[in-house]
């Protein structure tokens, strides 16, 4: 995947891991250096993250079914170290992302469904019960975090449109806002950003649509107003700022697979034993700077392993 340079999907492994360390808060403060730097770093937070209000609507009850063993990632780290290529191919896009207009917002649900819909996001949100789920997130680049998402199961959205019997996959698509998103000018990327799931995956209890995080409205850099969260898969499957969900009978080829099919596939399930062609997936570096072993299905095998029992001939882990 890309970081600082244009065609960064060609960069070597050590650049990726170095950057993960570089951008964690402690190192950022070290880099800025001294007391002035520290003040500069902390002063930056409220201005850049000001739009993340603490609306009561995002104070949801935590669903304790989804356990986690490590401490939550620091909110500053999770909200200032992001992948959102529409705003740039580096990690510090959180300020640029504030240009995205997230209201009004609608989601079109179409394709092989009985009841296609264009849903007004604010209306929908006022009707759906929300909950908090703490999930592990494992990026294919080998960094990870643990964050408290707020939202609802993807299955609740699917049930609104009644898929037809020949529907097998869904394709999700990110907004293309040319005025707000400078990354869209990088013409070598196959915009719009799209991702896909089988209908079984989409209906799995873990598949979640997040609209908040850390008890607040989802910040724009994390995919406001609504993004997918599929924690057993590499992070690139968790598409941000979704405007369309299309049901289809053909397996979709999504953004990263179009760009680099030898490295990124449809399934992208986390597996420490299947390396990326250019780096090991055995371990991961948390945004707080620890290196820990990666787990099969990112630790969610009990929920999802059965989805793949009849698919052993597929390349399930890239
Ligand atoms: N969605 C869109 N539209 N554009 C992106 O560049 N990056 C993906 C995913 N969703 C991406 C995206 C990748 S590679 C990761 S690891 C996660 O978002 C990062 O989510 P975060 O920035 O909230 O940590």
Structure description:
- The chain has 318 residues and is α+β, with helices and mostly antiparallel strands.
- The protein has a single domain, classed as Oxidoreductase, molybdopterin-binding domain (Sulfite Oxidase, Chain A, domain 2, Alpha-Beta Complex), CATH 3.90.420.
- Helix content is 20%, strand content 20%.
- The protein is built from nine helices and twelve strands.
- β7 and β8 form a beta hairpin.
- α2 (25-32) packs across α3.
- The structure holds ligand MTE.
- The site of ligand MTE has 16 residues, from loops.
Note the total helix count.
9
CATH class reads: Alpha Beta
- CATH architecture, by name, is Alpha-Beta Complex
Gyration radius, rounded? 19 Å
Domain module tally: 1
Average pLDDT rating: 87
Poorly predicted ranges = 2-51
Please report the distance between the alpha carbons of the first and last residues.
13 Å
Could you estimate the helical fraction of the residues in percent? 10-25%
Give every kind of bound small molecule, once each. ligand MTE
> What string, H for helix and E for strand, traces the elements in order?
HHHHEEHEEHEEHEEEEHEEH
CATH superfamily: Oxidoreductase, molybdopterin-binding domain
- Structural class call reads alpha+beta
**Biggest sheet overview:** 7 strands, mixed
Q: CATH topology, anyone?
A: Sulfite Oxidase, Chain A, domain 2
- The count of β-strands is 12
The shape is globular
β-strand amount: 15-25%
């Amino acid at each position: 995947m890309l970081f600082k340079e244009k065609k960064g999907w060609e960069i070597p492994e050590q650049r990726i891991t170095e950057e993960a360390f570089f951008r964690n808060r402690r190192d950022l403060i070290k880099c800025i250096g001294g007391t002035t730097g520290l003040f500069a770093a902390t002063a930056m937070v409220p201005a850049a993250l000001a739009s993340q209000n603490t609306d009561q609507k995002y104070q949801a009850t935590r669903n304790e079914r989804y356990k986690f063993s490590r401490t939550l990632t620091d909110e500053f780290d999770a909200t200032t170290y992001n992948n959102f290529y529409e705003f740039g191919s580096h990690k510090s896009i959180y300020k640029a992302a504030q240009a995205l207009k997230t209201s009004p917002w609608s989601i079109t649900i179409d394709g092989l469904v009985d009841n296609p819909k264009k849903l007004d996001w604010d209306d929908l949100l006022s009707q759906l019960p929300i909950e908090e789920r703490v999930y592990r997130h494992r990026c294919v680049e080998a960094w990870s975090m643990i964050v408290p998402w707020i939202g609802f199961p993807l299955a609740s959205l699917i049930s609104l449109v009644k898929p037809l019997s020949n529907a097998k996959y869904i394709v999700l698509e990110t907004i293309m806002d040319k005025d707000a998103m400078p990354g869209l000018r990088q013409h070598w990327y196959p915009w719009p950003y799209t991702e896909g799931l089988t209908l079984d995956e989409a209906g799995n209890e873990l598949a979640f649509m997040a609209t908040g995080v850390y008890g607040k409205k989802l910040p724009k850099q994390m995919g406001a107003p609504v993004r997918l969260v599929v924690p057993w898969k590499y992070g690139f499957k968790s598409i941000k700022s979704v405007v369309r969900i299309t049901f289809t009978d053909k397996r979709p080829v999504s953004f990263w697979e179009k760009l680099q099919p030898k490295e990124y596939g449809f399934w992208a399930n986390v597996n420490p034993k299947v390396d990326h062609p250019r780096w090991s997936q055995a371990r991961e570096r948390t945004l707080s700077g620890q290196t820990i072993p990666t787990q099969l299905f990112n630790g969610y095998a009990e929920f999802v392993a059965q989805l793949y029992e009849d698919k052993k001939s597929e390349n399930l882990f890239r």
